[in-house]
């Protein structure tokens, strides 16, 4: 009888074990010619495979060889012409040192230890009665050893244990012969994300490249798979899963593959999600990260904005008339991209990170900032904040110039006083850049307000916010001056 050796303290198996079954089921291996993956944003994928097998009429026990180790077994679907599934099972009792120990408790095992005097092996039989701190507890003729320093040798592979996860099924076949069996299941461990590169060419044009990064931690290699990517958050209800045996997967170094740029992939809509079908098949090994070109757009039109919210407060507690001021605040740099065909874009953009690059005067590429893109449909507008402008600053101050009481309403010993206060605000923009720029200043008002005077025309951004576009020439300054009336009510008690 063949022996199987395990080295104590190691988490990996020293030798390979042949898969043993008690009956003679049909083992169905995939040839990768009909393998496809639908990968979702939530570390989830739908694996679809077509496998051919010679089946006999009537009942057949079949083993689907090579399914993902992180399969959700309750989601497995097996179907085909003339096929009726009677039952299906997922075997996750994997070959591991811990599983061998657990399933041999109470059994006699062989042990091997080294004679410290001459280095020879000493072979003994013992009863495996349990474990302590991950080590076997062995009962020898001379007593119980809880700190055995040798190796444990098992006679057989326990029934139902295999060297990889397997999906088995009992099928009722109507008419024997070659059958195409279709297998579909959900698995964890497959994910994808999008990364974008924006190369800025001029003040209003950039090239946009999108890359899909696929990560495979599902426990199996996928060869020559047709890949589809689902953009959007699909609701997933998780059921209780059996505990998977640990210690079987050997980690390999992460690899990174890139593909040549391709034309942008046009998505299709499916149930209010976006579906991207990659034009060629791809192989993704377990523990591998692969990058595939998804989008390539040239001369995309953009607009660069500088935005600052004026940090002045006009609240009910401002009665001393001293006002507020701020100095040298830097506006945010915002790139505005309209996702339209007129802007040389007009394609659904999956969520991801976009990184911007620009050449300096010596034509050296420099990183200038990054931002996050949410799922963006056609005709939507991207507003991407890359940081703060170093060479542009804004300083300002406010001054209350009058207060007028409008009414006084008694409330017991207190009063509600409604009044109108008038403020004058100055905000000076200093543009130290070598180019003319427009700086967008906004002011939020928490009470009823009215602009009564301004040297630069404003617009209402929303009911409580006003916006000014302040043009500033290169190496120059511009001051925004406006007056506002604030109407509010405050409580006063004697």
Note the topology:
Layout: E1 4-6, E2 26-29, E3 35-40, E4 44-55, E5 58-65, E6 77-79, E7 83-91, H1 97-103, E8 108-114, E9 121-132, E10 135-140, E11 143-145, E12 151-154, E13 166-173, E14 177-188, E15 190-200, E16 205-216, E17 222-231, E18 256-257, E19 268-270, E20 273-277, E21 282-284, E22 288-301, E23 303-309, E24 325-329, E25 332-338, E26 352-359, E27 365-373, E28 381-388, E29 392-411, E30 414-431, E31 437-444, E32 448-454, E33 458-462, E34 465-472, E35 476-493
Parallel strand pairs: 2-5, 3-17, 15-26, 18-22, 23-31
Antiparallel strand pairs: 1-12, 3-4, 4-14, 5-13, 6-14, 7-13, 8-9, 8-12, 9-10, 10-11, 15-16, 16-22, 17-20, 17-21, 19-20, 23-25, 24-29, 25-28, 26-27, 29-30, 30-35, 31-34, 32-35, 33-34
TL;DR of this structure?
With 494 residues, this protein is mainly β. It has 1 helix and 35 strands. Among the domains are: 50 residues; 112 residues, no CATH class; 133 residues, Sandwich (Immunoglobulin-like), CATH 2.60.40.
Polypeptide structure, described:
Among the domains are: 105-154; 190-301, no CATH class; 304-331 and 389-493, Immunoglobulin-like. It is mainly β and 494 residues long. It has one helix at 97-103, and strands at 4-6, 26-29, 35-40, 44-55, 58-65, 77-79, 83-91, 108-114, 121-132, 135-140, 143-145, 151-154, 166-173, 177-188, 190-200, 205-216, 222-231, 256-257, 268-270, 273-277, 282-284, 288-301, 303-309, 325-329, 332-338, 352-359, 365-373, 381-388, 392-411, 414-431, 437-444, 448-454, 458-462, 465-472, 476-493. The chain is elongated and about 100 Å long. It starts with a strand and ends with a strand.
């Amino acid at each position: 009888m063949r022996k199987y050796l395990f080295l104590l303290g190691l988490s990996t198996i020293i030798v390979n074990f042949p898969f043993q079954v008690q009956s003679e089921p049909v083992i169905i291996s995939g040839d990768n010619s009909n393998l496809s993956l639908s990968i979702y944003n939530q570390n989830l994928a739908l694996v679809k495979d077509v496998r051919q097998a010679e089946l006999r009429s009537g009942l057949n026990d079949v083993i689907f060889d090579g399914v993902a180790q992180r399969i959700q077994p309750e989601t497995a679907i097996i179907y085909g012409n003339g096929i009726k599934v009677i039952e299906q099972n997922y075997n996750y009792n994997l070959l591991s040192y811990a599983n061998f120990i657990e399933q041999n408790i109470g059994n006699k095992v062989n042990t091997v230890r080294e004679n410290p005097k001459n280095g020879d092996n000493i072979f003994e039989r013992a009863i495996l009665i349990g474990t302590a701190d991950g080590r076997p507890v062995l009962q020898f003729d001379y007593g119980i050893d809880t700190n055995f320093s040798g190796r444990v040798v098992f006679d057989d592979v326990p029934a139902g244990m295999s060297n990889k996860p397997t999906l088995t099924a009992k099928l009722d076949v109507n008419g024997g012969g070659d059958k195409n069996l279709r297998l579909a299941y959900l698995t964890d461990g497959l994910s994808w994300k999008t990364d974008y590169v924006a190369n800025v060419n001029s003040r209003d044009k950039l090239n946009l490249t999108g890359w899909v990064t696929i990560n495979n931690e599902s426990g199996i290699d996928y060869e020559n798979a047709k890949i589809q990517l689902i953009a959007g958050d699909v609701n997933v209800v998780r059921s209780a899963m059996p505990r998977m045996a640990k210690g079987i997967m050997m980690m390999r170094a992460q690899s990174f593959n890139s593909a040549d740029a391709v034309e942008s992939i046009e998505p299709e809509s499916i149930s209010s999600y976006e579906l991207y079908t990659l034009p060629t098949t791809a192989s993704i090994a377990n523990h591998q990260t692969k990058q595939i070109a998804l989008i390539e757009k040239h001369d995309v039109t953009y607009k660069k904005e500088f935005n600052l919210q004026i940090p002045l407060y006009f609240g009910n507690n401002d009665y001393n008339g001293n006002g507020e001021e701020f100095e040298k605040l830097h506006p945010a740099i915002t790139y505005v991209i309209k996702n339209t065909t007129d802007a040389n874009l007009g394609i659904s953009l999956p969520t991801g990170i976009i990184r911007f690059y620009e050449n300096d005067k010596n034509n050296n590429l420099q990183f200038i900032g990054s931002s996050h893109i949410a799922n963006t449909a056609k005709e939507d507008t991207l507003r991407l904040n890359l940081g703060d402008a170093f060479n542009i600053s804004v300083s300002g101050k406010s001054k209350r110039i009058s207060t007028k009481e409008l009414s006084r309403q008694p409330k017991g010993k207190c009063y509600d006083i409604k009044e109108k206060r008038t403020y004058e605000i100055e905000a000076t923009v200093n543009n130290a850049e070598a180019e003319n720029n427009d700086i967008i200043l906004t002011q939020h008002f928490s009470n009823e307000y009215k602009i009564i005077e301004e040297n630069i025309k404003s617009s209402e951004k929303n009911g409580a916010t006003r916006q000014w576009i302040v043009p500033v020439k290169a190496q120059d300054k511009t001051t925004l001056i406006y007056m506002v009336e604030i109407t509010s009510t405050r409580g006063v008690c004697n």
